[in-house]
Design a protein that fits this description.
With 295 residues, the chain is an alpha+beta fold. 36% of the residues lie in helices and 15% in strands. The longest helix has 22 residues, at 273-294.
């Protein structure tokens, strides 16, 4: 992790501890290089998880270190989720880290599991929200005193003004919910949203430091629903067809290696194997969703 507040407490006794790359952008280059090299030697591969509002200096330093080490054993994973969702996904990968999954499959698993996360927030203003579509009417209402909005950022953007009929589309399978409160007073998430989504458990966490930047306001209550059980996560990942990266040779799931960023080589137009591969991938995702619903 690039930030300590994205390292959530363990979900169960098997969850591996998170390693926080503290001050990675401000450390002397030689010291930062030495610390990352030590992690690689200790664990074999390193998966760095961060959000889209991670400072550019941090991302630039990570790319520099990876280049200087001349290694494909460092993966930089930036899921399309708000900060609390990133923290939840990182913890799920830590859970799976205790299983018999290869580094390539574990790193690729993040792209699969992100489809089962519902992440959003209640905001006191959407005037500076630029990651979710906001129309002029909603923007104007955000300046009215006392206005609050419920926003779903993932999997499908949705924005509604809080009121008696306010609702957000939720998951079609059983989840837990994590709530992080900022500078906003509202019980809508715990009193209305959680029951409507029929969450099986509710927990609170501190608001990530990057959340106000992501949502455009400190008046925020961020929430995230997720699959908590390691057995379900493991079944989802192992039910998907695996392949071998043609460049670095590690096992992967999906169409791009997270470590070396290689994609499968292009096939001739008359070759039907690519069509078959896409069909298998779609079938695997459908099977995975069915597995979650049954669970």
């Amino acid at each position: 992790m690039t930030s300590a507040d994205l390292a959530l407490p363990p979900q169960d006794e098997r969850t591996l501890p998170a390693v926080v790359l503290r001050d990675i952008a401000t450390l002397p280059l030689e010291q930062a290089l030495s610390e990352l090299q030590a992690l690689i030697e200790q664990h074999g591969h390193v998966i760095v998880v961060c959000s889209h509002v991670t400072p550019v200096a941090v991302l630039r330093r990570l790319h520099t270190l990876r280049s200087l080490l001349e290694t494909d054993r460092v993966a930089l994973f930036i899921p399309d989720l708000p900060p609390l969702g990133v923290a939840v996904l990182a913890r799920q990968l830590r859970q799976l880290g205790s299983c018999d999954l290869s580094p390539g499959v574990l790193a690729s698993a993040g792209r699969l599991l992100v489809h089962y996360i519902h992440s959003g927030a209640v905001l006191g203003s959407v005037a500076r929200l630029d990651r979710i579509p906001v129309n002029l009417k909603q923007h104007a209402k955000s300046w009215m005193p006392g206005s609050q909005f419920a926003v779903l950022a993932h999997p499908q953007p949705q924005l509604v003004r809080l009121g008696p009929e306010a609702a957000l589309d939720g998951p079609e399978f059983g989840t837990w919910m994590l709530v992080a409160k900022g500078q906003l007073q509202s019980d809508w998430v715990t009193g209305t949203l959680a029951p409507s989504w029929k969450v099986q458990g509710l927990r609170e966490a501190p608001l990530p430091a990057e959340s106000p930047s992501w949502w455009g306001t400190g008046k925020v209550i961020e929430f995230c629903s997720y699959l908590p059980d390691l057995s379900v996560l493991y079944q989802l990942v192992t039910s998907v067809r695996r392949g071998i990266c043609h460049w670095c040779g590690i096992d992967v799931i999906g169409d791009r290696c997270v470590f070396c960023s290689a994609t499968p080589p292009s096939l001739p137009a008359h070759d039907n194997s690519n069509r078959s591969s896409n069909s298998n991938s779609n079938n695997s995702r459908s099977a995975s969703r069915a597995l979650v619903r049954r669970t």
